[in-house]
UniProtKB/TrEMBL annotation, chains A, B:
Domain called Nudix hydrolase: residue spans: 6-135
Protein name per Swiss-Prot or TrEMBL: 8-oxo-dGTP diphosphatase
InterPro entries: Nudix_hydrolase, NUDIX_hydrolase-like_dom_sf, NUDIX_hydrolase_dom
One Pfam family in the UniProt entry: NUDIX
Molecular function (Gene Ontology), one example: hydrolase activity
Superkingdom assignment: Bacteria
Keywords: Hydrolase
């Protein structure tokens, strides 16, 4: 049986809080690999791991934070959302404390207040995802 | 770049209504192919289609109904949920009118009131999914 389906990825909208539980902003990355630009951190799901484990692993790898999952925002699957190939992304709303640090596919991490997100710099369909998040 | 991710599937919890909008029950199928047993209708997502289009196509193919999507119930991705291989399923709550008819992978369709679902006959993790649906 030859089954061909899109790739599965996860992305994490990480809401960063300080130790007094004050919202600091959300964490975005400057991508190191094409497509270059600003992005929600995320990556592919490995065979053998759950989507929840995948998003926690990717947040640890890319922005060096241990995140808590709040809930799923949505599943984004437009065949054209990734210019490279068809990728279905499960997008999680997460919560984290501490200071993010760039690694893996992230060249730099940036923290944005919701009203300061530079939507025109976002890659993939991340502008739509973040607007869905803000208007949820 | 060799990317390997789990397969992506969709399943539809189809709430069936009569023409007066009275809830009739949810539609389950008796599977024609292994694993045999009772299941929520569903199938793999094709490359090039959205998960929303996939669940509408699968409901049409398996139970001959045009469904309306209500919302996503959840994403089920336990590596052991499918005994054949790792499949991530996006589960949609749907709504439909009319009479379901079995085709494709469905040997028979059955309509169950929520309190009459025979949970012990369900394959995959569909018992858990339907309990999550009932307790949502």
């Amino acid at each position: 049986m030859a089954i061909k389906t899109p790739y599965v990825a996860v992305d994490g909208i990480v809401q960063l809080f300080d130790e007094k539980d004050n919202f600091q902003g959300i964490v975005l990355i400057e991508r190191k690999n094409p497509p270059l630009g600003l992005a929600i951190p995320g990556g592919f799901v490995d065979i053998g791991e759950t989507v929840e484990d995948a998003v926690k692993r990717e947040m640890k790898e890319e922005i060096s934070l241990d995140v808590e999952i709040v809930r799923i925002l949505g599943v984004y699957s437009d065949p054209k959302r990734d210019p490279r190939f068809h990728t279905v992304s499960v997008v999680f709303i997460c919560k984290a404390y501490g200071m993010p640090k760039a690694s893996s596919d992230a060249k730099e991490v940036k923290i944005f207040k919701l009203e300061e997100i530079p939507f025109d710099k976002l890659v993939f369909d991340h502008e739509k995802i973040l607007k869905d998040f803000i208007n949820r």
